[in-house]
Specification:
The chain has 300 residues and is α+β, with helices and mostly antiparallel strands. It is built from nine helices and 13 strands. The radius of gyration is 20 Å and the shape is globular.
Length: 300
């Protein structure tokens, strides 16, 4: 379908998105072949700042982007989407330039697909890491076993106990997340009880040493974030979440964690895509030895 586009691009009005834009945002995701993920949009529009450009040819959105702030040290850029009928016209670059301007000098981070990376490099972003997405039905191996009712556990994890999270765990989760991520994400974690389908914590000797969430994403359930003391604990958390669903799993894993990647592959998940973590005006934060997977590619 042909469409008109005002020239110059500076004539395109940028506005803040609100929860009233939930359906247009989900429609835009679907237009680009992404899951509608209305739950994730709800989280992002509540915890972050959404920016949108209305489509002059319809009642929908031409483009969207969300900025999730973690204070003056970092803000995460996500959900940069341009409607298919307006693609390759410079709208994405124009929107990113406006978002960078709105950030007011705050360092930015994002996860770039291979198609989007040239745009971000042209805006000054530099690569700092790589994330691998795997998808499929989780099939426990002899090593992964079951975490339920005292079943088998991955080697090296005999002192670790995984259980559903409770309201009383939130303070310890926030503290652990701040230590590992390197910045305060309280405004995200406090919304997990309504966002996540399942939330697990790992304990050793009464100390919380890891947590992970499972959230709906189209026909899949997505694992993330995945924070753990070590790889054995990360395996326990993934196994526990996998037991909680019959849907295919989707998990994004920092490529540095080669052992976890190999294990997830042995459990039936297959590589689907890769993204490059990039930053503008700052550095990569956090303890990447314990940060196995992001909440989402829109938040870090």
């Amino acid at each position: 379908m042909s469409s008109s586009l005002p020239r110059p691009l500076t004539d395109l009005p940028l506005r803040r998105l609100t929860r009233d834009d939930l359906v247009p945002c989900a429609d835009l995701s679907e237009d680009r072949g992404w899951p509608r993920d209305e739950e994730r949009w709800t989280l992002l529009l509540a915890a972050g700042t959404g920016y949108g450009i209305d489509d002059p040819d319809s009642k929908g959105l031409m483009a969207s982007c969300v900025l999730v702030s973690y204070g003056p040290e970092l803000a995460a850029v996500g959900m940069l989407l341009v409607a298919g009928r307006h693609a390759r016209r410079g709208v994405g670059r124009y929107l990113m330039e406006r978002v960078i301007e709105a950030a007011g000098g705050t360092p930015l981070s994002l996860y770039a697909t291979s198609a989007g990376r040239p745009l971000y490099e042209g805006l000054g972003f530099v690569p700092v890491g790589r994330t691998v997405r795997l998808k499929g039905h989780f099939r426990p191996t002899a090593e992964s076993g079951s975490t339920a009712s005292g079943g088998a556990k991955p080697s090296g994890s005999a002192d670790v106990f995984v259980r559903p999270a409770s309201a009383g765990d939130l303070r310890a989760m926030v503290q652990l997340d701040s230590d590992v991520f390197g910045l305060d994400r309280t405004h995200l974690l406090t919304r997990f009880p309504t966002f996540a389908a399942h939330l697990r914590v790992a304990e050793a000797n009464g100390e919380l040493i890891g947590y992970a969430a499972l959230s709906p994403s189209g026909d899949n359930h997505a694992v993330g974030p995945l924070v753990a003391r070590d790889t054995a604990t990360a395996k326990l958390l993934v196994s526990s979440l996998a037991e909680a669903t019959d849907r295919p799993l989707r998990v994004d894993i920092d490529a540095r964690h080669e052992e976890l990647l190999a294990w997830v592959g042995a459990c039936g998940l297959r590589p689907h895509s890769e993204t490059t973590e990039m930053v503008l005006g700052g550095r990569q934060h956090g303890d990447r030895a314990r940060y196995f997977g992001p909440l989402s590619l829109a938040t870090g």
